[in-house]
Specification:
alpha/beta; 477 residues; elongated; 30% helix; two-stranded antiparallel sheet; disordered N terminus
Length: 477
């Protein structure tokens, strides 16, 4: 099977960046750099003349890790053999890899994923060939099977010989809950090899398959997966070590290349408790300026480096993140089902009733007041809201529980629930025809609502669950 040489196009950009930093080259031996704290293993595989620049990248990570009191172990080409790398990774809380990537799907094989040589690391066969990266003689791809310890003698001869062979029955042994960071490695974040502008741009499906495949051995070992082409592996490590109580989803969303408008998340097919995220962005000078998949994540986004798990998996990167967490911690919401909050989903009138009843601790109702809420799980709260004088329904003895709440209705709900004072200030110009205008002005005067744009309130727009969290927090916190 032909395996790619991976003469990385984007690394030529990295060369200039690293040279500009003036950072000296690190030793190529395997050695601990600092003592104490969590262990951070940094791997630099052979990439020919570009290896020194990757060593510089590794040193940047080492400096950040050391600043957090970590024990840093560097295993750099030409010492990055399987035996040395495996020893360095043992017990590591963070593993960072710079080098060639080999994933699937790729241009070299079709219809079969050679897991003995994909989804892993490109390493030195021996310590005697310098940084030479000829995949047929000096470099070996120790793939998913090597990481998991499932190689057999029927796999590739090079993998069996140089990735542990019969002695590799356990694979790698990082610390429980470790973090794996891939920097500048092909396929890891979804992008492929595109050396000619005429080469087709990576599709969403291809990117998802690559990230799914590359992350599988990491997740199978209990880890969390990050991959970046932005040259910010050191920043990711900085956040992982420095923000132990921040969920990984938020750590990812803080990344240089985060793009919520193009982010696609999905349940991981091989590890159902995990998600995998890809996104399509542009890095100037990379792949002819065309968008590609440069930044990815896989794991439980609600989990933190300290091992705690947050309430929701779908709120990371939302401008309402802090508001949603406040709403949850205040006991006002348990989400929209499973570990999700659904921040971009419109709030229904039935849900609005439950939010307000819980937030204000309203007493239970004595009577049933509406004809159309009998099948709603929110019926008791709807009746409680009515008896508290917050709502009279939508007309004709109905509450319309499944209708979305508009921004003007939200204003009236909150103004009545909080008994806000009227305002003499006409805060917005687009609500003059609304029966809710006095309540809109009241919530504006109370700094609960600031409008949707300059001078506008957008009264007929639906309120999302994320926006609702912000309204309630401003009103009640």
């Amino acid at each position: 099977m032909p395996v790619p040489r991976h003469v990385v196009h984007l690394v030529t950009i990295v060369v200039a960046l690293v040279i500009a930093t003036g950072i000296g080259l690190a030793p190529t031996s395997v050695r601990p750099v600092a003592a104490g704290g969590p262990k951070v293993a940094i791997i630099v595989g052979p990439v020919g003349s570009l290896t020194s620049n990757y060593r510089n990248r590794g040193d940047q990570v080492a400096a950040v890790a050391s600043s957090h009191g970590a024990t840093v172990v560097k295993v750099y080409s030409p010492s990055a053999t399987w035996a040395n790398v495996r020893a360095a990774v043992n017990g590591a809380s963070v593993v960072v890899y710079f080098g060639h990537g080999n994933g699937y799907p790729n241009p070299y094989t079709s219809g079969y994923e050679y897991t003995d040589r994909v989804n892993g690391w490109g390493l030195n066969r021996t310590t005697t060939n310098g940084d030479a990266d000829n995949w047929g003689s000096t470099m070996v791809y120790c793939g998913e099977k090597a990481l998991l310890g499932t190689l057999t003698s029927s796999d590739g001869a090079a993998q069996w010989s140089y990735c542990g062979g019969s002695s590799n029955t356990d694979g790698i042994s990082p610390a429980p809950g470790f973090v794996m960071v891939y920097g500048q490695a092909h396929y890891t974040s979804g992008f492929g090899e595109r050396y000619e502008e005429s080469t087709p741009i990576t599709t969403l499906s291809e990117a998802q398959q690559r990230v799914r495949n590359y992350s599988t051995p990491v997740l199978s070992k209990g880890g969390t997966f990050f991959a970046t082409a932005y040259g910010d592996a050191d920043e990711i490590v900085d956040r992982v070590l420095g923000q132990p109580d921040t969920p990984y989803g938020e750590i990812f969303a803080s990344g240089e290349g985060y793009s919520p408008s193009t982010l696609t998340s999905a349940t991981h097919p091989d590890v159902p408790s995990a998600q995998y995220w890809v996104q399509r962005t542009v890095i100037e000078g990379f792949h002819f300026g065309d968008p590609d998949y440069w930044y990815a994540f896989a794991g439980n986004p609600a989990r933190t480096p300290s091992g705690d798990v947050g309430p929701f998996t779908d709120i990371y990167g939302s401008v309402f993140y802090d508001d949603i967490i406040w709403l949850y911690e205040a006991g006002i919401t348990g989400g929209c089902g499973g570990p999700r909050y659904c921040p971009n989903t419109a709030v229904t009138r039935a849900q609005m009733a439950s939010f307000l009843v819980r937030a204000l601790d309203l007493p239970a109702a004595e009577d049933d007041h509406f004809a159309d809420d009998g099948g709603s799980i929110h019926q008791a709260d709807i009746n409680a809201l009515h008896e508290a004088g917050v709502t009279g329904g939508c007309g004709d003895g109905n509450y319309c529980p499944n209708q979305s709440v508009t921004r003007e209705e939200m204003a009236s709900f909150l103004s009545r629930a909080l008994d806000l004072d009227e305002s003499a200030v006409n805060a917005f110009w687009d609500d003059d025809d609304s029966m809710h205008e006095p309540n809109i002005d009241a919530v504006a005067a109370a700094s609960i609502a600031s409008g949707c744009a300059s001078g506008r309130y957008c009264p007929s727009n639906a309120v999302t669950r994320g926006q609702m969290a912000a309204f309630l927090r401003r009103a009640l916190d």
